[in-house]
Amino acid sequence: MAYKACPNETCNRKVTDRSSGQYDCRSCGVSSAFRYKFNVKTSICDETENQWVTLFEDAGREVFGMSAHELMDLREHDASAFHRRIEAVQMEKYCFRLRYKLENYNDTLKPNVTVDRAEKVDRSSADYWRDIRRRIDLCYT
Question: Within a 10 A sphere around the Cβ of 129, how many other Cβ atoms?
Answer without folding.
Answer: 9
